[in-house]
Design brief:
The complex is a heterodimer. By secondary structure, chain A is α+β, with helices and mostly antiparallel strands. Chain A has eight helices and four strands. In chain A, strands 2-1-3-4 form a four-stranded mixed beta sheet, covered by helices on one side. In chain B, helix 8 crosses helix 11. The chains are: A alpha+beta, B alpha/beta.
Chain lengths: 172, 596
Amino acid sequence: MSEKTLETQENQEELVQEIDLAGVDDVCAKYIGKKGAIIPVLQQVQEHYGYLSKEMIERIGENLNVSPHQLYGVLTFYAQFYTTPRGKYVIRVCRGTACHVKGSGRISEVVKEEFGISNGETSGDLKFTLEEVSCIGACGMAPVIMINDKTYGNLTPENARAIFREYANKEE
Amino acid sequence: MGEHIVDNYEVHVCMGTAGVASGGTEVMEAFRKAFEDAGLPAEVKERNCKVKATGCRGLCARDVLVDIYIPGKEPVTYEHVTAEMVPTIVQEHVVGGEVVAKWAAKKDYYEFYEHQKRYVLKDCGKVDPDSIDDYIAHGGYEAIKKVLKEMTPEQVIEEVKKSGLRGRGGGGFPTGLKWTFCRNSPGDLKYLICNADEGDPGAFMDRSIIEGNPHDVIEGMLIAAYAIGCKEGYIYCRAEYPLAIQRVKRALKVAEERGFLGKNILGTDFEFHLHLKEGAGAFVCGEETALMASIEGERGMPRSRPPFPAVKGLWGKPSNVNNVETFANLPMIILNGADWYASIGTEKSKGTKIFALSGKVKSTGLIEVPMGITVRQLIFEVGGGIPKKRKFKAVQLGGPSGGCLPESLLDTPIDYDSLIAAGAMMGSGGVVVMDETNCMVNVAHFFLTFTQRESCGKCIPCRIGTKTMLDILARITKGQGREGDIELLESLAQDIKVSSLCGLGQTAPNPVLTTIRYFRHEYEAHIKEKRCPGRECTELVKFEVQEDACKKCGICFKVCPVNAITWEKGKVAYIDKSKCVKCRECIVNCPFNAID
């Protein structure tokens, strides 16, 4: 990781309160001694905390008796793992073929217009993260986005904007 | 209707990913509420009114789809149902017996199914994916019973060989032969893996099968495990499919409780344990050796073959990997016999294939047709042709590994070998249709962006070669193409094809090669004239209304999101470039191609 990424990570971590690592131990306990444990452990720790911090990764290493290098090697390979905090709402814009042909590029631009974030970025208030993903697999209703686990299809720049504003106005 | 007959009214609500996204959950809830409503007359109240969630039936563009089954009457399908419509449907149709004609599916809905042969998807959209009893009621788990009672493993393999089934993951390797290799490998512990890492952009049949009928896949895996001699198996599913994962988890748990998985299956000494592994977001993990590395908890990088997985696969043990759709074909091959199966399709490509039809076509969705149907039939008969009266330009078959075919090849039959001869491939079965407002260089650039990003970086031809090609394509789309670029792309493509380690790199140049082969004039227009015929490369589009082509209809004026277009009735439209954000809405919507 570059100096800069580490720096942003530190800035954002100030926003995140002190993290209790007990959750990491709980996840690891289920997998100690099992083969092929690394990915499921990383997935479940991330599910618990929303991302994987340096401390969490080190703690996983201690628990599973693997080096942090090996863990970083695995988690940097897969698109699904994040080392910085993520927004409360993750907007996944599908960039699959059908969506591309039907103008999904514009949908990403609308996210940028609304929240000032580009692909992979999280807004300053930790509310939104934009992710351009490969095919979501709902090509019949292209262009498609997902916000957390909810799928929205047949979008136009305008109805997408309305959806984003609805989320932006949601009470915490 | 007799007063004392207690029979079932059934309401089926599509709850595939598209169904849920269109509000399926709310529709189900509304029906449940409506049936609890005290205002219903006794003859409806006393009957058993069941609301059932089903999987995807294919025509996702019309979701939420709802079927009403009333005994003694033809089932009726409603399209685009919302929760608000439910009380009316219940009052007029279920209670009153009158179909709500304005919302009922019309002729075109039934035409979509008319040309299809739905065997694999037979029960998708009919079975409740969360109910093993419903699956059994539809003849589920009969095939594995037959296999365990009447057949030896060798006989099962023989049957599959005779059926002519070829791998549905895209390569088309004969399934029975693949099994033989693994069966003949020495060793007690063998693994069976279901590849549900459907990463091809534009393909979603695996997801729909798993979401719509998970037990069908489990049963197929049981048959394969028995034939090959595997005690343990994995379903490797994309993490991007949360609904599929949820349904597989539930199906595995119930199948184990009911004795279809685990030890002593159905009272025999056959043993098979099945686990779910969630992928973590890497397209290359669809390649079997990379997939196995990923299950082992490593970076998902392919290994060189030999040794083949059948000899040395997962954890170093003999392993067999098949695709979801391949497994889903097995129960019916066993139940109906290899001869029946081999009577469908062409000489060398047997059975049906599911295609995901999307892009610029009227009926987008999942389509199951016999092998050998032509591309033209697929797009124009089943898919209903191109919307907005646009002209067909190209069709991309087989995802990022496949190729684009032009109009002149529309009569190519869809089977493994004809497609390869045309420069495309079956791939996973994604079919993306493009019209005259799409640019072929842009499409090639799009696919290569994807493969370049998803290249695992292990081998140099793929890592650096795709990047170099992508840079050239990017230049061309920006109007900085140079004389000799096309030839350079062709020679790079050949090198990458022959020297890459795995299928990702070996097929990555296909979209570029086919677009050059069939649409060379578009490349030349970009390079020599700095013009984009599809008007998709925005840096080359002038965004000017061609006065002689403009029919003064005002459509562009209505669709422009930033009010950059001025227009009055009977006058040619004008685009103010200082306001224009180049979103292309006007180009896509102008019926006369008057904007350049």
